[in-house]
Write a structure and sequence with these properties.
The protein is of the alpha+beta class. The chain is built from four helices and ten strands; from the N terminus they run αβββββαββββαβα. It folds into two domains: about 70 residues, no CATH class; about 140 residues, Protein Transport Mog1p, Chain A (3-Layer(aba) Sandwich), CATH 3.40.1000.10. The strands form two sheets. A seven-stranded antiparallel sheet has the order 3-4-5-9-8-7-6. A hairpin with a 2-residue loop joins β7 and β8. The chain starts with a helix and ends with a helix.
């Protein structure tokens, strides 16, 4: 057998294994809610909690020593008859009275997985602490979704890539009756299994190569 052909086949095996590993890890950490019809992937290692303070789900990250609160991402969902532009207009009108020391930092239209959305970034104070939040708003088929990412101003930029990575995984899914939740499998269990499978595939492949 041609050594060059052997090398190419080995490369294909490794690439296919890497793709499968990526798909498995992504599916393991994806949160899916059949009641509200969406899925989103939480940052690795963050804690998931449902039904807290009127949200559908919250992903808790590291605790901020300055405030004693956690960096977090939460998703709220509610039926609405408003358009996206109307909802944003209402939020910009209401927030200055709802939040202490509210200050709009930036706003822009954006697209997430083919869905039109709008982003607001602002600061406010609560219990003497200042926070910075990014909110991404989507409205599809009369259902409104708000993805909120919260940190303190001094570490907001540190967690911004993590926020964005999770936001970009948001997808709408069919609304079904609740089904049993598949237990989350840690990556430290998946990765060794995948590596072992790659090694076994490689060993089996080498056995097929005829000796000279």
């Amino acid at each position: 057998m041609n050594p060059k052909s052997n090398s190419l086949s080995l490369v294909r095996i490794i690439l296919i294994s890497a793709v499968i590993a990526s798909m498995l890890i992504s599916s393991v950490y994806a949160y899916s809610n059949t009641q509200y019809g969406f899925s989103i992937t939480a940052p690795t290692g963050w804690t998931t909690s449902e039904g807290v303070s009127g949200t559908v789900v919250i992903f808790y990250g590291p605790t901020m020593t300055e405030t004693g609160t956690d960096v977090n991402i939460n998703i709220a969902a509610t039926p609405t008859t408003e358009t996206l532009s109307e909802a944003i207009s209402s939020m910009k009108t209401d927030y200055p009275t709802e939040f202490s020391d509210y200050s709009l930092v930036s706003e822009s239209s954006r697209n997430i997985g083919g869905l039109s959305s709008y982003e607001l970034v602002y600061t406010f104070t609560d219990a003497g602490n200042t926070y910075k939040q990014k909110q991404v708003v989507l409205i599809e088929n009369g259902q409104g979704f708000i993805i909120t990412c919260t940190a303190i101003p001094s570490n907001y930029d540190i967690y911004l890539p993590t926020f964005e990575q999770s936001i970009q995984t948001f997808r709408l899914t069919p609304t079904l009756s609740p089904s049993p939740t598949i237990p989350e499998v840690p990556s430290w269990i998946i990765l060794p299994i995948l590596i072992a499978g790659m090694l076994l595939a490689f060993v089996g492949y080498k056995k097929k190569i005829p000796s000279k």
